[in-house]
Write a structure and sequence with these properties.
Elements: H1 9-17, H2 22-28, E1 36-40, H3 42-45, E2 54-60, E3 73-79, E4 82-89, E5 92-100, H4 105-113, H5 115-118, H6 133-144, E6 146-149, H7 151-160, H8 166-190, H9 196-216, H10 227-237, H11 248-252, H12 262-280, H13 286-294
Parallel strand pairs: 2-5
Antiparallel strand pairs: 1-2, 1-6, 3-4, 4-5
Helix pairs in contact: 8-9, 8-12, 8-13, 9-12
């Protein structure tokens, strides 16, 4: 079976509309024999429209390289842990993102360390690992993409990088970031700043809380544009969701006459979300991590964490 046959119907339709046959696609990428290949992006996660581009992720090891494609026009550039090649095949734009194993072991170690939080065992790390947004996006594409070729490599990378902990990492990172922004908002308000300044800081905190809640449900995003889509997905799935997020538009775009109380509202949202996470338990270790990394971190009322004040 060639990888064209593994593509979902929307991706096949996009290729057909661009006049690209399966043989042309197979030869165009010029992949090493054992390279992994996944379909990623909107065609992989069900958000594709008639104008969506095709996105692929290529996995390389050792001395493997992707020298170029055999047909079409190509633009190449690098960012983070990826090399990106934009390829025009006929009228269809194809985005090839190339990832090499040599750049990845540190992510696997950091994600493995979070297993101790999930197991409720002793956790001794004093610093929280920081992944760039581009790195989170790339790892999530590896986690959720549709394997097309080199499937044993895809499965091994997913296991060795402990990508099962990526949702926990993202939810924890977002909550910690949110609390820092909320602290800034509260401090600005206490210092007598005009309502607009504290409200801006609080809104960034609200965005982080929202993205963290999406990650908690397995939707690890770095783009808030798709929040409403995934909110609908989780509601239809029957997963328990915090009621505070029922109206995201009002949460993120408060009315002008409500700005004065907005920082306090977002702080209360953080408290409610922590209690929701603690009760729901979908991501084991999340509230343990918030307590561990939040201990003495913020000058706010942290009684909701349930820490020993001594």
């Amino acid at each position: 079976m060639n990888f064209y046959d593994r593509l979902p119907a929307t991706a096949q339709a996009a290729l057909d509309a661009g006049g690209i046959d399966s043989g042309e696609l197979e030869s165009a990428f010029n992949l090493p024999p054992h390279a992994g290949l996944l379909l990623v992006g909107s065609h992989a996660d069900g958000r594709a429209t008639a104008t969506s581009d095709l996105d692929f992720l290529v996995l390389l090891e050792g001395d493997e390289e992707l020298p170029g494609v055999d047909v079409g026009d190509t633009i190449s550039f690098s960012y983070g842990i990826l090399e990106r090649k934009l390829v025009l095949l006929g009228t269809q734009e194809v985005d090839l993102e190339v990832m090499h194993w040599r750049q990845l072991p540190r992510f696997g170690q950091s994600l493995w360390d979070l297993t101790r939080l999930s197991a409720q065992s002793e956790y001794t790390s004093t610093s929280f690992p920081v992944f760039l947004l581009e790195e989170i996006r790339a790892l999530n594409r590896l986690r959720t993409g549709v394997p097309l070729r080199g499937i044993p490599r895809v499965e091994r990378w997913r296991a060795d990088l402990h990508l099962e902990n990526l949702a926990l990492y993202r939810a924890l990172s977002c909550f910690l970031n949110a609390m820092s922004w909320i602290e800034d908002a509260v401090n600005l308000k206490r210092a007598g700043a005009a309502d607009f300044g504290p409200a801006l800081a609080a809104r960034v905190g609200a965005e982080e809380l929202l993205l963290g809640t999406l990650a908690y449900h397995g939707h690890i995003l770095v783009d808030l544009r798709f929040a409403a889509h995934y909110s609908d997905v989780w509601k239809k799935s029957g997963d328990p969701t915090p009621g505070a997020l029922d109206d995201m538009q009002e949460l993120l775009f408060p009315q002008t006459d409500l700005l004065a109380d907005y920082p306090d509202r977002i702080y209360e949202l953080a408290v409610d979300l922590f209690r929701f996470y603690d009760h729901d338990g979908k991501q084991a270790g999340l509230t343990t991590g918030i307590r561990w990394f939040g201990r003495n971190r913020w000058h706010l009322d942290l009684s909701f964490l349930g820490l020993d004040s001594s």
